[in-house]
Amino acid sequence: MRDEKKTTVGRRDFLRKVGAGAVGAGATLATPLITPAHADSENNDEKRKARYKETDHVKAFYRVNRYPA
């Protein structure tokens, strides 16, 4: 009989290597996307204004999902 060695990678080893590769690729891709933080451009009046508007779209969402009126 032949004495053949099969190179197999265990499931856990495979997942470790794939996870390490994904972390490394993610770190290199995310680096140029990081931008410095900027201060808010809104003044106090703009920060306190009402933003929620119950439009037809919002009313339809509530109706379809059976939220109480």
What would you say this structure looks like, in words?
The chain has helices at residues 11-30, 44-48, 56-64. The model has no long low-confidence stretch (mean pLDDT 76). The protein has three helices and no strands. With 69 residues, the chain is mostly helical. The chain has a domain at 11-33 and 44-64.
Tally the helices: 3
Mean pLDDT: 76
Low-confidence stretches: none
The chain-level structural class is mainly alpha
Instruction: Sum up the overall morphology in one term.
Output: elongated
CA distance, first residue to last residue: 79 Å
Instruction: Estimate the helix proportion, in percent.
Output: 40-55%
- DSSP strand (E) fraction? under 5%
Largest sheet: none
How many whole angstroms does the radius of gyration measure?
A: 27 Å
Helix-strand string: HHH
Count of β-strands: 0
Protein name: Twin-arginine translocation signal domain-containing protein
InterPro entries: Formate_DH_TAT-contain, TAT_signal, TAT_signal_bac_arc
Descriptors for this entry?
3 helices, single chain, TAT_signal_bac_arc, 69 residues, elongated
In short:
This is Twin-arginine translocation signal domain-containing protein. The chain is mainly alpha-helical and 69 residues long.
Topology record:
Layout: H1 11-30, H2 44-48, H3 56-64
